[in-house]
Write a structure and sequence with these properties.
Elements (H helix, E strand, L loop, with lengths): L1 H11 L20 H21 L6 H16 L2 H11 L6 H9 L5 H23 L3 H19 L12 H6 L2 H15 L3 H26 L4 H21 L1
Helix pairs in contact: 2-3, 2-7, 2-9, 3-6, 4-5, 4-6, 4-11, 6-11, 7-9, 7-10, 7-11, 9-10, 10-11
């Protein structure tokens, strides 16, 4: 099980706890996705807490920007790249062309717009959440968004023959989903009934994405898993403002 935790950190973050590659089933890391989300959330919250401890003049836009930069650094903007590739596929008329566009490393117009909107919305939403003094909510969002990636793997064919996300999708089983959702549900309780409500909203949204991805791509890819994380994050931040 500890190999799964190490693999989860290796997959989702820049952190490497041992120098050599860990051998094991990549799908076993799915159990630990909510825990990695918790770790990321704690780092983001620590920026706000450190700012308060140091008694610096409260400048919420700067704190929001630092949180965004920290997450980009921690995750290598891996999921944003998936969002960009997914958006670039909008211009294609068939499945094969969409998959071909997503495999292209170049960023197109739709991809650039998607990344710009993602960054802008994140900063604006976090500013408002901090203004409402909902810092604990910043802790919860990465937990839920990483859990939605586990849900996206379940019951979905891999849209390509091979790819970076193939071992996760092809190896995903019911125990991975059950454990991830159970841990996410427990951690969601830090925000009370609102946290559970947010989890269910994200599950409904992810089910809708599954239907869309299967229709447009014939399944899911690593890029689409990253796009799921980013869209879940934006949805959660927005809901957090109005809850």
């Amino acid at each position: 099980m500890m190999k799964g935790l190490i693999l989860a950190f290796h997959t989702l973050t820049i952190f490497r706890f041992i120098s050599k590659d860990v051998k094991g089933e990549l799908s076993d890391s799915l159990y630990w996705f909510p825990i990695v989300g918790l770790f990321i959330g704690l780092i983001l919250c620590s920026i706000y807490w450190a700012w308060k401890i140091l008694r610096l003049p409260l400048f919420i836009p700067a704190i929001s920007l630092l949180m965004l930069l920290a997450e980009i650094l921690i995750t290598r903007a891996f999921h944003m790249d998936g969002l960009s590739d997914w958006a670039d596929s909008f211009g294609a008329l068939n499945r094969e062309k969409r998959l071909e566009i997503m495999k292209d490393s170049r960023v197109g117009t739709f991809g650039a717009i998607a990344i710009s909107m993602d960054l802008a919305c994140r900063i604006i939403f976090v500013i408002r959440i901090l203004e409402l003094n909902k810092i604990i909510y910043i802790l919860l969002v990465p937990i839920i968004s990483r859990t939605m990636m586990v849900e996206m793997c379940m019951g979905m064919p891999y849209a390509r023959e091979n790819g970076t996300g193939a071992p996760f999708v092809k190896g995903a089983k019911d125990p991975h989903r059950a454990v991830a959702l159970f841990v996410c549900g427990l951690l969601s309780l830090i925000y009370g009934i609102k946290g559970i409500f947010l989890l269910f909203i994200n599950l409904a949204f992810t089910f809708a994405l599954k239907w869309s991805f299967k229709k447009r791509f014939g399944g899911v890819t690593g890029d689409l898993l990253g796009a799921t994380n980013e869209m879940s994050t934006l949805l959660s931040l927005f809901i957090g403002i109005i809850l």
